[in-house]
Amino acid sequence: MRNRLLLIIIDGVPLRNWLRLFGNLEGWVEAGIARRWTMRSVLPSISASCYASIHTGVSPQEHGCTGNLNVFRLTQPDIFSQVRLAGGVTGAVAHSFWSEFFNRHPFDPVRDIEYDEPDSASINHGRFHTMSGYGHDNQMTPSDVDLFATLTSLCRRFGLHYGMLHTCTLDSMGHRFYHESEEMDRACFLMDEMLAPFIPRWREMGYEVIVTADHGQDERGHHGGRSALQQDFALYYFGPAEGPSADTVLDQLQLAPTILSRLGAPIPATMTAAPFLT
Asked: In the chain, what are the domains?
């Protein structure tokens, strides 16, 4: 494949908190090492619907996932399957919804929580968590350092061409404390601090890196509908490609074809949005 790329999805962070609280990411932008754009999610701006659109490049009205209670094996071509068609190796460290969308449904914790399947037509190396028992009083989220380290380990052990990581920590904190609180200030700060050492390490390993969200959250910790707080978030890119002007608002449906174009994998006819990196 032409390049290697990692997609880091930090669930549920509105644009204003990326700009205000992620000092390492913003410092790399200020230093000219990274580029940042605003990206706008699909509707509904709910997690599962966004996950499906991020990787298929089609809207929820087309892929059919209307929310977190409607998760199934998707039928459209996606980033994982297209990378595999091009002969690349794929990996994912993420919530179990991703395995159900792109590998097998329903999710069997014993079978699917950790697997290495070199001949898979989708995800070759999966490390998933379920968050079973999640609620207001117990987030059931793993440490983000552990997730970042797991992805790094997969890259080293298996030579991933494309790797995806998804963490729900900040989305869960936002639902509990809302995004204008001392608790969220601290949580965003810690996420930025934990992520920061891995980015130069991934770059040294030869990966382009995209850090972004799936959606935002509003002042009551809600998302799913239409508003700037619910839909808009930041996208940071570390790599040599050129992109549009910094004030361009990107469409979430552009992400899948952009990643495939960077990797040199075929872009299916179902992905009609234009890549934003060249």
From this structure: 4-263 (3.40.720.10)
